[in-house]
């Protein structure tokens, strides 16, 4: 080899299908080419540097040409050699990161799409569960009176309210109205029917205590008042 030696790049050193002499020549040609210098070394000069025969150098250059690692640009009057391996590999190495970047971006986009799709699916499932739970939770209206006469009157009252422009009772609203009429009637279903009829007759939208109950005045016993006044008990 040359006394000063030559640095062989890893991409050339890794070409184990080439002999060391072939790798040396390829590295030497590449070094010249990168420094914008024309490579015109003769086989004799290379044989001296590699401490090899001219025949071995001739064979090595021929193999490098056949394997498309170098090319002969000019044969006469002076032979010029140029590498073609590094330019191809350099392009491949340049293209590879771009391809990997594109692939990475595609995978990122795909992952984001899958994440969005998963979130939408979870949202739909959650919404369906809520609606299912709501449909299963039904408020059962319980009447304070089970007499047929009251139940029929109550149904008439509900229809009457709607015909007067009121909204249909919600389950909670109906239960509250039944509780109110139970209180006003003092648990008397006949009195409860009177309260309903009072609202129907007057075109009321709500239920109220009977008017006669409101207007009823307390009864006074004059004898009892006199006895109390004179201290008699």
Strand order of the largest sheet: 1-2
Mean pLDDT: 81
How far is the N terminus from the C terminus? 145 Å
Beta strands, count:
2
Low-pLDDT stretches are none
Which overall shape is indicated by the principal axes computed on the Cα atoms? rod-shaped
Rg on CA atoms, Å: 54 Å
Determine the fraction of residues in helical runs and give it as a percent range.
55-70%
Helix-strand string: HHHHEEHHHHHH
Biggest sheet layout: 2 strands, antiparallel
If helices are DSSP runs of H or I spanning 4 or more residues, what is the number of helices?
10
Overall structural class, as computed from helix and strand content, comes to: mainly alpha
Indicate the proportion of strand residues.
under 5%
Plain-language structure description:
With 233 residues, the chain is mainly alpha-helical. Among the domains are: 10-83, Orthogonal Bundle (Arc Repressor Mutant, subunit A), CATH 1.10.10.10; 148-229, no CATH class. Helix content is 64%, strand content 4%. The chain has ten helices and two strands, in the order ααααββαααααα. The protein has a two-stranded antiparallel ribbon with strand order 1-2. Helix 3 (43-50) packs across helix 4.
Topology (SSEs and partners):
Layout: H1 10-13, H2 20-34, H3 43-50, H4 54-66, E1 70-74, E2 80-83, H5 85-136, H6 148-163, H7 171-184, H8 189-202, H9 211-215, H10 222-229
Antiparallel strand pairs: 1-2
Helix pairs in contact: 2-4, 3-4, 6-8
């Amino acid at each position: 080899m040359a006394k000063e030696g030559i640095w062989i790049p890893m991409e050339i050193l890794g070409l184990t299908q080439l002999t060391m002499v072939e790798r040396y020549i390829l590295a030497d040609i590449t070094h010249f080419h990168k420094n914008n210098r024309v490579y015109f070394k003769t086989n004799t000069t290379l044989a001296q540097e590699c401490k090899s025969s001219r025949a071995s150098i001739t064979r090595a250059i021929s193999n490098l040409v056949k394997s498309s690692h170098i090319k002969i640009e000019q044969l006469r009057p002076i032979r010029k050699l140029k590498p073609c391996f590094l330019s191809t590999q350099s392009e491949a190495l340049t293209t590879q990161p771009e391809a990997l970047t594109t692939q990475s971006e595609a995978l990122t986009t795909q992952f984001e799409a899958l994440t969005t799709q998963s979130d939408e699916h979870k949202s739909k499932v959650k919404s369906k569960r809520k609606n299912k739970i709501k449909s299963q939770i039904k408020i059962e209206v319980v009447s304070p009176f089970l007499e047929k006469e009251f139940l029929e009157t109550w149904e008439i009252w509900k229809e009457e309210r709607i015909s007067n422009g009121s909204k249909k009772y919600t389950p909670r609203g109906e239960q509250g109205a039944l509780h109110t009429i139970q209180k006003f009637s003092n648990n008397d279903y006949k009195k409860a029917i009177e309260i309903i009829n009072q609202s129907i007759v007057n075109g009321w939208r709500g239920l109220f205590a009977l008017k006669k109950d409101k207007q009823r005045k307390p009864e006074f016993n004059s004898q009892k008042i006199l006895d109390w006044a004179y201290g008699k008990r």
